[in-house]
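Researcher: Last one for today. Full complex below.
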Amino acid sequence: MSTIIEMRGISKSFGPVAALSNVDFRLEPGSIHALMGENGAGKSTLMKILAGVLRPTSGEILLAGKPLSLSSPRDGLDAGISVVFQEQSLLANLTVAENMFLGREPRTRWGGIDYPTMRAKTREALAQLDLDFDPDRQVAELGIAERQFLEIAHGIHANARVMILDEPTAALNAADVDVLNRNIRRLASEGCAIVYVSHRLEEIFELCDTVTVLKDGALVGTRPVSEMNTASLIAMMVGRELSDMFPPRADETGAPMLGIEDMVLQPGAAALNLTVNAGEIVALAGLEGQGQSAIARALVGLHVPVSGHIHLKGQTVPLPLPRESGLLKMHAAGLGFVPEDRKEEGLLLNLSVAQNIALGRFAGVPAVAPASGTRAVVQRMMDAMNIKAAGPRARVGSLSGGNQQKVLFGRALAAEMDVLVIEEPTRGVDVGAKAEIYGLLRDFTAAGGAVLVLSREALELIGLADRIYVIHDNAIAGEIAATEATEHKLLDMALSGGKAENA
Amino acid sequence: MTTVLRAAGRIPPAYLVFAALLAFLMWERPQMMNPNVLGIFLRQVAPLGIVVLAQLLVVRVGSIDLSGGGVILLVNYIISANVLPNAPGIAFVAIALGIGTVVGAFNGYMVARRRVSAVIVTLAVSIILVGFVQYLSSGSPPGDVPDYMNDLFDIRFGPVPAPVLFWVILTTCLAAFLNLTVFGRRIEAIGDNSVAAHFAGVPVERTVILTHTLAGLLIGVAALVQTASIAVGSVREGLDLPILSVAATILGGVVFGRGQGGVWGPFFGVLSFALLFVSMTILGVSEPGRLIAQGLIIFAAAVIYGLRTR
Amino acid sequence: MLPLLVVIGIVTWLSIGTDEFARPGNLSNLLAQAMPLLIASIGQMFVIVVAGLDLSVGSVISFSTAILALDAPGYLTFPALFMLAALIGATNGIAVTRLNVHPIIATLAMQYVVLGVTRLIRPVSGGTVPEFVIASVQGSFLGVPMPVFWAITVLAIGWKVLHASRFGLHLFAIGGGMASGQTSAARNFGVPETRIIISAYVASSLFAALAGVFLAGRIVSGDPNVGMLFELNSITAVALGGTQLSGGVGSLQGTAIGAFLLALLSNGMNLANVSPFIQTVVKGGLLLAVVSFQRRRKMGL
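Model: Here's the assembly. Have a good evening.
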């Protein structure tokens, strides 16, 4: 088949920084094309150029052989290029139908919006994805998977010939991923060219036929997926073997540091109990939205459970914690929380690396206390974590994703906590930085700390943790030593809610 | 070269405006450029300068305080209307600081805990206080300000008037306080991203309430200085200070959540206003003309900053 | 919903409690009192839906009366007024969008500039307003007082534009994106964000000018202070009507109820001989109460 999109010699600079240099990228109709690379390799930039969000510094885009000039996402959509970005782009205050037609509303003879037509066509487009929800529902009421499907439906409805999916499964559970993959295959079989951006290798091998790898803004190569395996793909990206990602586990563990006793997350849910010992990394696994995040957030007052107690270093704290002061209270008691969303919740992007790290030392200190004596700590953290920045005064927002994540950990470590609760330690972080972060967490526990971690990636939990609790329906479905855990076993426990184990 | 240009681009507009106005005055009225005359100009803006200290604090945490007009009128009324006959000066000081602190704490509670729009809360508080004072005074000037307050206002140390010295000392103290304490760091963090600040262990609501309370206290101080600067009580004087203070703050390079201008940028913003008032008097600009000029300056400063922080 | 119940409550109370209230003269007077605020509030709502605020509304209203009271024929001043108002709104809108100025600062600055200009052309109240303006406000048609037609017209226009046009949907889309922190969401849908936001500020200024026309017709002269506090009262009315100041959520009927509620309050307090200064205090307190019940995600301006 003929090429539908050809990007030739694309370069893009932001000021003095070159994000892309001379990249060629071709898309065939009916192909599911994986785009891979470490963070900062230029994947997002390339896709934003294809979508019309950014304009290239040089280079050209050909659509079916004809030059294409894109100056806005609207132009991209009109040319049949549709994007489902990682960030949710739907408008929660509007209805499903309004979101489907926003920017291209059908009109009545009087110039008003033709709502009946909008509803009918929305139903039609959703039906193509085997979905059935009310066009008049507010998007705010939809779940995360439903929203993602709605975005895809939006693309289909715009007669997309090219569909770009940027980490579409990042927030989905296994069942939704299946539905998504089915729809992606169907779209491809109907002649749509699909670009699939993902960090998850297993998905690439399962779904895609072609893979393009970028590294440091340059093209490494484009290959058929059938010729590749995990090792060769990772080698293309970083030149590093998978096996040296995870540090060795602890030999022995110490006394209990963190205990959760009879926590009831929701009315009617079973009470759950767990412990984390000194020197141990304990993971919470499970399908999306089963309560892992609620457990972690309940520990710092960001989720309100029905009842329960926390035991922290022998101290007993009743639940629920107050929303405003819960985090500070636990911080004072030696428990630090590292949120998943480092841009919105984690870091102060316009402040310096030093300020971000030093803030960890100031929690619980009176407002009038002197803010001095943090320079040495900051420098120690930057050295120990190998944070690549122009210096302690560099703006955090100017760092790469991996280095930002390290600053976030640097703050938690600088605060000298005994227990860390970590959501998604390596979300959106490239392979190299991942290994370094895993090493840091192991160093922390080796020094007597305890870690409770959750992640969507089962392989990460198996590689990183000592023990894994599988969460199902707001309760603990099972507990397994990481050495015995496999992806298959975890999935089994997560799906069956622990019944398989008893059988 | 580019770094030099970029550094130049980061200079708060206040310094440029100040330099331009100073050059204009030196050229137009060189005879006025002596310490004594300048001291009198500066003395006039000392109340504004103190309100600006309050304003820059709250602006740094992404808030705003427009309630100063009401506080100033109320303090002014209490002192000049003989509400408390024969009260000692210290009582007035206590009342002014008390009113400022209470109003500031209320603003802070509404903004931080109840998450109400800061503009709306503080404007509403202001119109409530102004309405109340006007009701009490039936809209006419209440009476005389005690002489000793006017006398205090007129003291000079060499060419430096006491209110100006007081203002400079207060500014220096605030700058040191923000530079050296945890409070200053917390304000920066909240200004950048209050959610992330919460996760970083900053007591966000408490710090915002504290910031507003401190601002209220400073406005109480400004109300005293403002009252001392006039001989007869008034139900109008000082109403425009909050707006002017916002203008001077922005001119000084402190915008909502960002504070590259520090404390001295807004200080020079106030100096710019002092020179501006003089220049307009020299040029014979009428009251409407002043309103227009004030509006245009706020606009220009905001545009310069808006384009820069894009 | 609550404001509507309050309106019904106050109406009932005033009808029973005072003799004057239920008289046709007072009711028609009430509508005429409510009209400028209703018009200004509809305009204010356009801006609030896109998460902005227009603090220049009051000045534009005074400005409008001053222009109409100029010593010039009405066929010149009337169109000139709306062109100037559009220019004011466009300047606000361009400052907010293209020049990245916070809406409150931009419109506050504009409030000063317009007030200054108004005082230049009309330092104290006076002058005469074109006859057709007076007739359109104080006259009646088929025995029905003109304010009734004004109300029907502005509500119809407001409803059409906000709730039944692409422009309206785009306003809500942009506001929804801003309220949830996805500032470029609407743009990515191909909504011409800049143009729509500028149009919202233009609409606000045009409605304020229209409110000024109505007021000029009522007071028969130009007055540089007549618009004072309209910016706050219109925000109060819009917020009372359930429109979220963070953007994206609101309804015209809510705004209408909010405006009538405020007008009723004034009317009731006038009948009860409450000092105008205390009325200001009460309205300020009401604004505080209303906004303190609007839960926002973020604290700040």
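Chain C touches chain B through 49 residues (CB under 8 Å). Residues 74 and 130 of chain C are 5 Å apart (CA to CA).
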